[in-house]
Design goal:
There is one protein chain. The chain has 222 residues and is mostly helical. It folds into two domains: 62 residues, Homeodomain-like (Arc Repressor Mutant, subunit A), CATH 1.10.10; 152 residues, Tetracycline Repressor, domain 2. The protein contains twelve helices and no strands. Helix 1 crosses helix 6. The longest helix has 26 residues. The mean pLDDT is 90.
């Protein structure tokens, strides 16, 4: 949460004090969403958690939309940094190694309380708030860039658009595990095994799927 610039008032976070205040606000927004749900994410609730007035909060963020934009930008920034770290440690000649690392990281991250609680609340908020939905899709589009890059390297037969479609499938499949192997979820004790299954299934899929199989309605004969 460093070097943030308020979407509402450029220049409000250039000082150390401004940076600290933005950090507190963003942390409060994240915690409010996790603890009180999407309905509880209001400017008044965030201000109360920061122990500041709503007017003071409005100095940094004029609306919940502005606040949510910064919150999601910071969240995705953390994931992109983690993905970059995985790439830096992977065999550059073997993109499947990097893809495996990303898949395992995502399923491991699902096991944290913060991730298990944050993202379902974001999905719920997006169902009721068009701006939140727009921001959420932007967040996931950025997160999928690593898949968009790795998939064509593993399977050059796919066009860029076909690779993006496979990327979307991988992302959606991984996110769906949150409700089953996330923090304190019924199948959480099998998270490592699910990770192994996901790596096997997804790498096999990326390696073998053809443009024809993506485009046609029926691919199983019989």
């Amino acid at each position: 949460m460093r070097d943030l610039i308020s979407k509402n008032r450029p220049g409000t976070a250039v000082s150390r004090k401004g940076n600290e205040r933005i950090d507190r606000i963003i942390g409060a927004a994240r915690d409010t969403l996790i603890q009180q749900g999407y309905q509880g994410l209001t400017m008044r609730a965030v201000a109360a958690k920061c122990d500041i007035s709503v007017g003071n909060l409005n100095y940094y963020y004029s609306s919940k939309a502005d606040l949510l934009a910064d919150l999601l930008e910071i969240v995705i920034g953390g994931y992109l940094a983690a993905f970059d770290d995985i790439l830096s440690k992977s065999d550059p000649v073997d993109p499947t190694n990097a893809l495996e690392g990303v898949i395992r990281f995502i399923i491991s991250d699902i096991g944290t309380e913060e991730t298990t609680m944050f993202f379902p609340e974001l999905w719920a908020l997006a169902n009721h708030d068009p701006n939140a939905a727009k921001r959420m899709h932007e967040l996931y589009a950025k997160a999928r860039l690593i898949f968009d890059d790795l998939i064509p390297k593993i399977n050059p037969a796919l066009s860029a658009e076909e690779a993006r479609q496979v990327s979307l499938f991988l992302s959606a499949s991984l996110e769906g595990h949150t409700m089953f192997v996330g923090y304190n979820k019924p199948w959480a004790k099998y998270r490592q095994r699910i990770s192994n299954i996901a790596v096997k299934a997804m790498l096999d899929l990326v390696l073998s799927i053809t443009p024809w199989e993506i485009a046609n309605l029926h691919i199983i004969k019989g």
